[in-house]
Amino acid sequence: MPASGRRLILVGAAVSALAVTACQGPQSALNVAGREAEAMADLLWVLVSAGAVIWVLVLGTALFATRLFPGPIDQRIGNTIIVVGGVFVPTVVLGALVGWTMWAMSELRTPDPDGLRIAVSGEQWWWRVAYERDDGTVVPSANEIRLPAGEAVTLELSSPDVIHSFWIPALGGKMDMIPGRVNELVLEPRKPGVYRGQCAEYCGTSHALMAFSVVVMEPDAFETWLAAQAEPAQAPPSEGRQLFSANGCGACHAVRGTGAEGRVGPDLTHVASRLSLGAGVLPVTEEALAEWVAHTRLVKPEARMPPYDMLPDTEIDAIASYLAGLE
Ligand code: CUA
User: Which residues pair with 214 in a beta bridge?
Assistant: First the structure.
């Protein structure tokens, strides 16, 4: 084989490898882990396959007519080709696809009346989360969503100010979060694991920094986790707790059980049990917490929370240490 041919094959292999690896990962609609995502992936593959077949047929016909038999054809055969290929086939194919899509949409969007409900509000630029338990109690959280595998969960999506779009590609389609209304999204995750969600509608400066972790757990583990999240914080008196209170952090953040009851920012009662900080932008470590408290707007431009870089490093470290203990 000549060198140029070999080079072409290598380039082709590299491009294919890139394309295939893009289908993997925690935020891929092709790395399917839920019922709605499965239905959408099925629809995608049917569309791609049918499109490929139609493309080959159309090109084949064009080549046949221009290269193999370029002469005129019988008027009646020509009319038949136009009616069948131009009217009948597209009507049947597109009609079937529309019918299938409509059926799948109504099937997948029907909430389970006894299922878990989670209210999620898109904020600038984080996610307010509240689990509504069977006994009527509500468990507040933020920037992370945990779901029981195999159960249809209804997410009540809203926003207080601007439009966001809630999207967990591995579990299902995206849905807008619109001020003044509640949109219901039903998701039935099937595979336990850690996935990633992202705001999918431009909502301001830090739109791209508005992500969240999605943890799909076995139902028993989920119930245990939710019961632990409902508990007040394990926060023995410490310098960090005292500084948190003295600097007014509790006016915006709640740490249940400590007197901090703010509702403006994320609930921090169990912040250290989460997989990320600042809506998917930092890991949850003492260093990252200190970085966030001191330089909030360097980490997340135009965040509503003001940076506390006027505090001495020792005080910031003490607050970070307190927060890192809130598991
Ligand atoms: Cu929220 Cu983009």
Answer: 145, 195
